[in-house]
Design goal:
One of its GO terms (cellular component) is plasma membrane. This is histidine kinase. Residues 185-238 form the HAMP domain. 57% of the residues lie in helices and 16% in strands. By secondary structure, the protein is α+β, with helices and mostly antiparallel strands. The chain has three domains: 2-158, Beta-Lactamase (2-Layer Sandwich), CATH 3.30.450.20; 204-304, Signal transduction histidine kinase, dimerisation/phosphotransfer (DHp) domain (Helix Hairpins); 306-457, Histidine kinase-like ATPase, C-terminal domain (Heat Shock Protein 90). The chain has a five-stranded mixed β-sheet with strand order 6-8-9-11-10. A hairpin with a 2-residue loop joins strand 8 and strand 9 (382-388). The longest helix is centred in the N-terminal third of the chain and has 56 residues, at 2-57. The two termini are 36 Å apart.
């Protein structure tokens, strides 16, 4: 974001500097050229006056001394030609001025016509100036003054002006860069604090807040709204934790009483009830583990990251046995494929709870006389649990909504349920670093894939 802000501010600044600096540099160059030409024209007028007197008197020395001194000081050659066009008096190097082009201008001046004065142009084309001015006496041209000016001084003056313009542009750009960076820091500082606060909240530091004393007014308002949102989230999570604490404590007492009664009833039952009693005890112990997990969640705000080595095949088999009576009542068969032990470091309670939600969903929507097949297999260092049913399934476009809370397919609205099973299973699997994926295989029904990854769960 900072890079974009710098570009947004800096590009227009550079464009403005280029336009204004370029216009000023060009104007300064033409102004220096025009000034140089004007001075040269004045000097030519001075030599025309001296040349008129010299030609009248026939004394070349009247103009020669002035022309030589002028050439010595300014490096400008001066030649006075007579009515025939031949050099009559010179100052400086006359060999460089009487070339073909200059001779044509001399002939034009001796005819009584003034030539066009040089005009300012591109600085790189401003190399030398030649001015030919006729000398009149009583309306007749009696000679001409030829001045060839050295423009090195003018070119140096133009170069100095351009260097100053370039230095000013660099200085203005540097100042602009400093201002832009300071401005971007001022604008983005609150945004960075928002990012840090959001990362802290994501890590579970729900009490994180942002100071709203710096930055633009718009960002201050955003920070204020963010803090209010964080306050509301903290209050909501506190209420949820309180509810989980209260519910866990309230459920532990009747669960303990229920297990005591089961033990009391077990003393009066025959051996044929041993298996049922043991299954009831196991369910009671599992409920106790779930309540302990809820208590840990409520007390610490996050799940204890303790991963134990779990035999997933044995876990799936035990959960299928727990659901078998319910499936028998619905006339649905539960089948386990893959008897080989498959172990992984993960949270047993979370996996059991997620698998229960998926099996419950599969049994609920499977037609009478069908079966639910559960497959356990190792894959890429992890473990895949696939629960395949033969229910009515859903349309392809509805697959993405199956894990949404309270969503139910229109064709299954009459089936009892709340639409939370797969959503809860998804959250549970994600909490231990796994993934839940749902497919609509050929032949109808659904295939729910629970992917357990030890690297993420550990």
């Amino acid at each position: 974001m900072r890079r974009r802000l710098v570009v947004v501010f800096l590009v227009p600044l550079i464009a403005v500097l280029l336009v204004l600096g370029g216009a000023y540099a060009w104007s300064a160059a033409r102004s220096i050229q025009q000034e140089h030409i004007t001075e040269l024209v004045g000097d030519v007028a001075y030599f025309v006056t001296n040349a008129r007197q010299a030609l009248r008197s026939g004394s070349p020395e009247l103009v020669t001394r002035e022309a030589e001194r002028y050439a010595e000081v300014y490096g400008t050659g001066v030649v006075v030609v007579d009515r025939s066009g031949a050099p009559w008096a010179t100052g400086g190097d006359d060999a460089t001025v009487l070339d073909e082009a200059t001779t044509a201008q001399i002939q034009l001046a001796l005819a009584g016509r003034r030539g066009d004065l040089p005009q300012p142009g591109a600085p790189w084309e401003f190399t030398e100036l030649v001015i030919v001015e006729p000398v009149f006496d009583n309306g007749d041209a009696i000679g001409a003054v030829v001045v060839e000016a050295n423009v090195d001084v003018a070119r140096e003056a133009i170069l100095e002006q351009w260097v100053l313009v370039l230095f000013g542009a660099v200085l203005a750009t540097s100042v602009g860069l400093v201002i832009v960076f300071r401005l971007s820091d001022w604008v983005l500082r609150p945004v960075r604090r928002v990012d840090r606060a959001m990362e802290a909240i994501e890590r579970g530091e729900i009490e994180s807040r942002i100071a709203d004393d710096t930055g633009p007014p718009e960002l201050r308002r955003m920070i204020l709204l963010f803090n209010r949102m964080a306050d509301e989230i903290e209050r909501t999570m506190s209420r949820q934790q309180e509810f989980a604490l209260n519910a866990s404590h309230e459920l532990r007492n009747p669960l303990s009483a229920l297990l005591v009664r089961v033990e009391h009833l077990a003393t009066g039952l025959g051996d044929e009830w041993t298996r049922d009693i043991e299954e009831t005890r196991e369910e009671g112990r599992r409920m106790t583990r779930i309540l302990d997990t809820l208590l840990n969640l409520a007390r610490s705000g996050q799940r204890d990251a303790v991963a134990d080595r779990v035999d997933i095949t044995e876990l799936v088999r035990s959960r299928l046995d727990a659901w078998r009576q319910r499936a028998t009542q619905a006339r649905v068969s539960l089948v386990l494929r893959g008897d080989a032990p498959v172990s992984i470091a993960t949270d047993r309670v979370i996996v059991e709870s997620a698998l229960d939600a998926v099996i419950d969903n599969a049994v609920k929507f499977s037609p009478s006389g069908t079966r639910v097949v559960v497959t356990v297999a190792e894959s890429d260092g992890g473990v895949d649990i696939v629960v395949r049913d033969n229910g009515p399934g859903v349309d392809t476009e509805e697959l993405a909504h199956l894990t949404d809370r309270f969503w139910r397919s229109p064709r299954n609205r009459s089936t009892p349920g709340s639409g939370l099973g797969l959503a809860i299973a998804t959250d549970l699997v994600h909490s231990i670093g796994g993934k839940l994926r749902i497919e609509a295989p050929d032949g109808g029904g659904l295939a729910v894939h629970l992917r357990l990854s030890p690297e993420l769960a550990a």
